[in-house]
Write a structure and sequence with these properties.
The protein is α/β, with parallel strands linked by helices. The chain is 38% helix and 18% strand. It is built from 18 helices and 17 strands.
């Protein structure tokens, strides 16, 4: 097998960090089954993934969305892409292949561009697609490369979601948690009563899950009518079938993300495999992406109301001392409370769940000279704020999962590292929203003093690229 570096995309020169990661992977290839590549923002994951795929000879790259798929397409690697039917144009009808297929209920035989592309994608030893196309056509290859693997874990959780309709199971009206369901079934079996087949199967399925399974109750359409339903969403999928990597078809996994740690492997059922961890150094100088811990008070629920005035004061000071646009990360409930203190300040912009997209786009379109600051919720990942789109951001509250949910409370008490990792992962994702290239510059400020405890107890969960940029400020 040729050296891995000879497969680097033509026209590009590998940077020192990419060379180091690829050579480490090559050296460990025969000794490991799972490769965890922790690669920070601007590292060039796409180029590394393409290199590994071509070097391996038979490989599949999967990505979470079509935007990232287009980035791979722009690399012009020559690897066939699996895309949606609507992305192709019918040569005979002059409309999309999706529209043509719906109109005539069949494809245009051998001349259909979608059919030709799909055949090329499924029959080639190499392929690239989003997660959903991969699941639909199952073009399993010996090596599977998963880009943004944290999104793949969320997809697997969704696939494992189970629905229990009240009309079918007749569970109590007050059932709201995993424990409620188990308790209900235990009461039914009291006195040696035997459960019917359906309930016995449900009890067996529930006992195979962990108490950390989230339970959500809602009203949804069932046989055309609104009915009560409980949805069971596991926080890990270790006991679910490995639909992305069936062991008899996929021999090696390459998992890529800026935020990846041992709890993720455990959640995916991969901790027992031969695992190789490789961390890449950030190509962005640490001083350009500084993470500054400047605590103003404890933002946990018990201390929140007393701390909020100090947080508001700190945000005004940050907006005054940092030119350009800023972003404030905070939960919706905290944002509403902050609005009482900052709502009259014209530099701060707010959004609700309903107008989030419009407000975000308006903030993006505003000029850097205006220095608008968006108080945003649920923006920890998936947004790219390069250069003047944002020069600084503040994290008001450590993004812990809410302990009000019994499943989350069980997780915190029984698997504290996994519970902490959810907050660490969200926080690291958030710090990657500003400063996107080696030429960019953007600061992140952490204001919640509870971060100090999180970091002191779980510093090993933070990636080395993040720790390089971390600085502790003065503590109040």
């Amino acid at each position: 097998m040729s050296t891995i570096l000879s497969f680097f995309p033509s026209g590009l020169t590998p940077r020192a960090g990419q060379v180091e990661v690829l050579l480490k992977l090559e050296a460990e290839w025969q000794r490991s089954d799972v490769f965890c590549l922790v690669l920070p923002t601007a590292f060039g994951k796409s180029a590394c993934a393409l290199t590994i795929a071509k070097w391996a000879g038979q490989a599949q790259i999967i990505v979470p969305n079509n935007l990232l798929l287009q980035q791979y397409a722009d690399c012009r690697s020559g690897i066939p892409l699996g895309k949606r039917r609507e992305d192709y144009w019918c040569a005979t009808s002059k409309r999309s292949c999706e529209a043509q297929h719906k109109a005539v209920k069949q494809c245009c035989a051998d001349v259909c561009p979608y059919t030709k592309a799909l055949q090329s994608y499924t029959k080639s030893p190499l392929g690239i697609s989003n997660y959903y196309t991969y699941l639909a056509h199952k073009p399993y290859r010996s090596t599977l490369i998963i880009d943004e693997v944290q999104c793949a874990l969320e997809l697997l959780k969704e696939l494992a979601r189970k629905k229990l309709w009240q009309a079918e199971y007749r569970y109590p009206a007050d059932a709201r948690s995993f424990g409620d369901l188990i308790g209900w079934l235990e009461k039914l079996t009291a006195g040696s009563r035997t459960l019917d087949t359906k309930l016995a199967k449900l009890q067996k399925a529930l006992l195979a899950l962990e108490p950390s399974t989230l339970v959500r109750r809602s009203t949804q359409a069932w046989r055309g009518e609104p009915r009560d339903v409980l949805e069971l969403l596991p926080l890990d999928v270790r006991n679910e079938p490995p639909v992305l990597w069936p062991p008899h078809r996929v021999r090696r996994l390459v998992l890529m993300s800026a935020t990846l740690a041992r709890p993720d492997l455990e959640a995916m059922g991969l901790a027992g495999r031969r695992v190789c961890w490789i961390e890449g150094a950030s190509p962005i100088p640490a001083e350009r992406r500084a993470v500054l811990y400047q605590p103003v008070g404890n933002m946990s629920f018990a201390h929140q109301d007393a701390t909020l005035p100090k947080v508001a004061e700190a945000l005004v000071a940050l907006a005054s001392s940092n030119p350009g646009k800023g972003l404030v990360h905070t939960p919706y409930a905290v944002a509403e409370k902050l609005r009482q203190y900052l709502g009259g300040n014209p530099r701060f912009q707010w959004h609700s769940r309903q107008d989030k997209k419009a407000c975000y786009e308006a903030w993006q379109a505003s000029s850097p000279e205006q220095g608008r600051v968006l108080v945003g919720s649920g923006l920890y990942e998936g947004i790219d704020l390069a250069y003047d789109l944002a020069r600084w951001q503040a994290i008001c509250k450590v993004p812990y999962l809410s302990l009000a949910d019994p499943a989350i409370r069980w997780l915190a008490e029984n698997k504290p590292e996994t519970y902490a990792w959810q907050a660490v992962k969200a926080l690291m994702q958030a710090t990657g929203r500003v400063c996107r290239t080696p030429e960019d510059e953007g600061k992140t400020f952490i204001l919640d003093s509870s971060f100090g405890t999180l970091y002191s107890r779980n510093s090993g969960l933070f990636s080395s690229w993040w720790r390089d940029a971390y600085q502790e400020g003065s503590k109040k």
